[in-house]
Amino acid sequence: MRHGKADGTREGTPVAVLGLGLAALGRPEYLTVGHGPSLGADRSVAGLRGRCEEVCDAAWAGGIRWFDAARSYGLAEEFLAGWLRGRGIGAQDVTVSSKWGYTYTADWQPGAPVQEVKDHTAAALARQWPQSRALLGRWLDLYQIHSATEESGVLDDEAVLHDLAGLGVPVGLSLSGPHQARTLRKALAVRVGGRPVFSAVQATWNVLEPSAGPALAEAKAAGWTVIVKEALANGLLATPGPATAPLGEDPAGPALAAALAQPWADVVLSGAVTVRQLHANLAALTTPPPAPDDYAPLAVDPEAYWTRRSAMPWT
């Protein structure tokens, strides 16, 4: 699988590439600290389309070649497909990943009580795969289960696994919740017809919630592509304060640099919603990462981390 090109070196040591995740660019609200003020007043479809294209242009100019979407990211797949066509970007020049398993239900309404609904059944895959394929077509390089967990039963559903194995593109899974490592280790053993179903994982790793690290190293050793999401903890690590003091006055750069420096990481996704944020994220490629001993005290109990995340407001 191709990896994006936005990478760098620190004292001769390669770091992971930077990609762009479109979770906060394809819909008018998202659960990131400061998302609303950063996005601004124009939350119309046309306004979001223009913002998404603007940030994608800046990402491309900065060397980013990996773009990640999902069916539940509002119109992210549609925005991305239109941008790729409009800029004449060939499938061989970019890596595009997307996901199935959640449906966006807010219908562009501010303050909607339910933003998305999870469904990991074979029927949901049969509905969403053609939608993703129709939009992203030849650009789609990786299709992932969105936030797979053991509790959802998706890793035990023979019908889903059989259908995933037959899609004709590499298949992965994204993870969520305090038991990411356990879910990943189960996925590593999943086979259909004696062959592995999955070849990539997208997981949350940051200096507040690093618990999936050892399992991600195992996935890398097994030949999987490892993608890091939420490296800034949904904006918590972009806000200076006592909790981030070990990272300095501007914690976002060191926090992102720490994720990029993980030896098992192939891609770290930026969640930027402005060109300024995107440029700051690109600068992390050459920012010296903090020493593990410096950020280790920031780690919190995974259960507490995910409880806090689930309570974050959509803005």
Describe this structure in words.
It is a single chain. This protein has about 325 residues and is α/β, with parallel strands linked by helices. It contains 11 helices and 14 strands. The strands form 4 sheets. The protein has an 8-stranded parallel β-barrel, surrounded by 5 helices. Helix 2 packs across helix 3, helix 2 runs parallel beside helix 9 and helix 6 (about 180-190) packs parallel to helix 7 (about 215-220). The radius of gyration is 18 Å and the shape is globular. The chain starts with 8 loop residues before the first strand and ends in a 5-residue tail after the last helix.
In short:
Residues 55-239 form the NADP-dependent oxidoreductase domain. The chain contains 11 helices and 14 strands.
